[in-house]
Design brief:
Elements: H1 13-23, E1 28-32, E2 35-38, H2 39-55, E3 62-66, H3 71-82, E4 86-89, H4 96-106, E5 110-114, H5 118-126, E6 132-136, E7 161-167, E8 175-180, H6 181-194, E9 203-206, H7 213-225, E10 229-232, H8 238-247, E11 252-255, H9 257-265, E12 279-282, H10 289-299, E13 303-308, E14 315-318, E15 329-333, E16 338-342, E17 357-362, E18 369-370, H11 374-380, E19 381-382, E20 385-394, E21 400-405, E22 410-412, E23 415-417, H12 419-427, E24 432-442, E25 446-455, H13 463-473, E26 482-486, H14 499-510
Parallel strand pairs: 1-10, 3-4, 3-5, 5-6, 9-10, 11-12, 12-13, 25-26
Antiparallel strand pairs: 1-2, 7-8, 8-18, 13-14, 14-15, 15-21, 16-17, 17-20, 19-20, 20-21, 22-23, 24-25
Length: 511
Amino acid sequence: MPEYDLPRLFDTVMHMLQDAGGKSPGHIALKCEGREMTYQSFVRCVAGFARELEGLGARGGRVALICGNSIEIVVASFSAYAAGAQLVPINPLYTQRELSFILEDADPVVTIYDTAKAGDVEPLIDTVETMTGIAVGADSRTLDDWLDQTLALPLPTPEDFAVLQYTGGTTGRPKGVMITHGQIALNMCQREVAVPTLTEDERVLCVMPLFHVFATSMCMHLAVQCRGTMVIMKRYHPETTVQALVREKITFFPAGPTVFNGLLAFDGFQKADFSYLRCCVSGSAPLAEETLKTWKKVTGIEIVEGFGQSEAGPVLTMTTVEDTPLPGSVGKPLPYTAMQIVDVETGTMVLGPGEQGEIRAKGPQIMSGYRNRPDETAQALRDGWLYTGDIGECDEDGNFFIRDRKKDMAIVGGYNVYPREIDEVLYAHPAVLEAAAIGIKDDYLGEVICAQVVLKKGVPATVDELDYYCRENLAKYKVPRKLVISHKIPKTTVGKIDKAALRSQMKETNT
């Protein structure tokens, strides 16, 4: 493996922020809906809030964060780092049922949440005597509450845990991925080799949810690393996104395929001025070749693709800004990252170019393991390799291609959705005898969830009732787009639910 001079290498992202505050104090760090914050104010707010968190016992523990996109979620994230805590970012779209499992497993000392989520979060906090809740947003805490003069607290070390990132599992229960500060900081430098940024000259548009590892890595941490400006959108909408790209003179635009597809379909997109745009990055789901070509034709900018996962810190491969993207490829491994294709059955036989198998990876950015899951950690990390669960292949030049997923997972608008979780929710309904959910391809979202259920004899229920039940217990993107009540679900000869037959059946009814 060749030697690389890793640029902008810091011990932790907190060291990155401290450096930015010292070298670019007056530069705008964050913008969101008419509000803005300089790096000097950013550091001062982080210092003040970190002191409060440390006073609540956060050092060495965990701080949960249940917030939508805002300046507050960024300040809170870095404040948890500065307080010596492990950050636990949680999807604010989760229902109380989904939140309760993660909070129980993570066992945070402090939970920071949007006031809009108070109805779901506060009853859970009240059940745990050792947990303190802090509401932020309208009619609650403001950034002025946290302004301090200096960041006098001891900064974290590369060996300290930085993030506990929850990701789905085939059992339907999320797993907490444990990532250290050193793993994150080094992965930022690995990415910088493939896709370099310009100091104080990047304007990053964040339309993705900031609890998501892709947005954290490619927007929040990236902007601080290059002392750039991150423009935060509270929610994605094609019209306001196009307006922001032009008005804010955005240079760096990371997004998922759903966003790129939605923008291309928007009437005003073709006429917009993208003369400031230098780099677009796609992640979290496969990007269609047609989207790649059309985006380049309209904007003049190539979309850089990459591959990674929460367990990988998160980035493993990227195409580079110098290379012409190879349709369907997610690029080559980042510096100091080894990747192989191995047989699915044993995971030990290394396959050659053009042969499909499971992708495994090794590198300094790979996770330390799953919290409270020794068996699943041992399954994912074997002999120093991370077994990704993705099926792929590589060509003679070392370009990787993702072909399928080993695990029964769907990617809905960039979110990982595990059908088993939807199955478990449906099975809990008193009228449901059997349930099976699957992912079906969708032109806009990439995939959508469809489900089929069999009702118990003599226990009536309607599709509308089951849909309402799902919406009460699942985040919106997990709710089945199509739900069918049937007399039987297709099964294999050994009695297992035949997902292939079900998928074919649901495709026919979905057309």
